Amino acid sequence: MxxxxxxxxxxxxxxxxxFVNAQVAKYSNEFLSLGIGAxxxxxxxxxxxxxxxxxxxxxxxxxxxxxxxxxxLAAMHAEYFAGIAKYDxxxxxxxxxNKQAVAITWIRxxxxxxxxxxxxxxxxxxxDYNRISxxxxxxxxxxLSYAYNFENIKGLSVGANAxxxxxxxxxxxxxxxxxxxxxxxxxxxxxxMGAMLKDVTSTFxxxxxxxSPKVIEVFEATGNEIPTNTLELTxxxxxxxxxxxxxxxxGFNGTFALDFDCxxxxxxxxxxxxxxxxxxxxxxxxxxxxxIVALRAGIGNFQQVPFFDGKNKxxxxxxxxxxxxIKDIVFIxxxxxxxxxLSIALPSHVFSLKVTIESFKRKK
Length: 364
Fold this sequence. Notes:
The chain is mostly beta strands and 364 residues long. The chain is 10% helix and 53% strand. A 14-stranded antiparallel beta barrel has the order 2-3-4-5-6-7-8-11-12-14-15-16-17-18. The radius of gyration is 23 Å and the shape is globular. The termini are far apart.
C-alpha cells in the first residue's frame, strides 16, 4: 500500500509539473478537428451521435460496436489550398463480437516539397541554386480504439482512444505527443445521442529543435525568434451530438443531426463564445434510398468577420456530398467543401472509400 501511495504521489507531482511548465496552445493539434471521411465532411462534422462504422474511431469510438460487419477498411484523400496541403486517412476496424470492437487509425495532414533556402548563399556570398533542398511539414496521428456495448442497457455503448501524435518540420523540429479520448453513445427508438471528450487528460506535445549554426544565423538576420525546446498543451474539448433516423417508406429514409463543439481554451470566434467556454454548432442531414445512394448537406463554422465597411457580418460554411453503395460491400463517398465562405482557397473535392467484409474465410 505504501509503494502504491508513493507511486501515485510521484505520478501526481510529475503530471502537475508538466501542466505548470507546458504552454497552453489555443489551436494545438488542430488538424485533428478537420474531420475524416467524405460522409462526415459533407454533413458538417455531425457524426458524434451517428458514427456506426470504422470512422467512429475518430468521431466517437463508442460507435465501433455498431459496425454491421466484423471487418471494415476505410481510406480518404483530400487536398486543400489548390493542392498545396494533403490530407489523408486510413482506418481498419474489427468487431470482435456484439459487445466489443477495436480499430486502428492513421491521419496525416502535411505540406510537402517546401524549399529550404537557408543554404542558398555560399561562404563567398554567391547564390547557388544547387544548395536548395526540400522538406515537409507534416502532422501525424495514430489512434488505437476500443469500444464496449452494455447488453443490460440496450443502446448504450462506450469507447476510448489512445493516440500518439507525431509532428515534424523537416529536420529542423519535431514533437511527440500522447493523449486519450473517451466517448459514449445511446440509441433508443430512432433517436441517437452521443458525447465525445477529446484529450481527456490534456495532450502534451514535447517539441525539440535541431537548428544548424547557419539556420540560427538566418533567423537572427531576419529578426526571427530562436525557438527552444518546450511542451505544448492541448486542453480537453467536448463534442455533443443528437440525431434522428426517419423511415419514409419504400426504402427511403432520412437522418438529421445537430452537434455542438465546446472548447475551454478562452474565447474563440464561434457563434456562442465566452472566456469560459466557446460553442460551435453545426447541422447535417442525409436523404437515402436503402444503402444504394445518399444525398447529404451540412452547415457550420459560423463566424463573425469584420468587413471593409467596419461592420461585422456572420459567415458560415456549407457542404454537400453524395454516397454510393455497391452490394453493401463497397461504399464510395464524395464531399464538396470549403474552408469558410471568406476563404481565399478554392473549394475542395474529398473522396473516401469504405469496404465491409463479413469474413476472410472462404465458405465451403
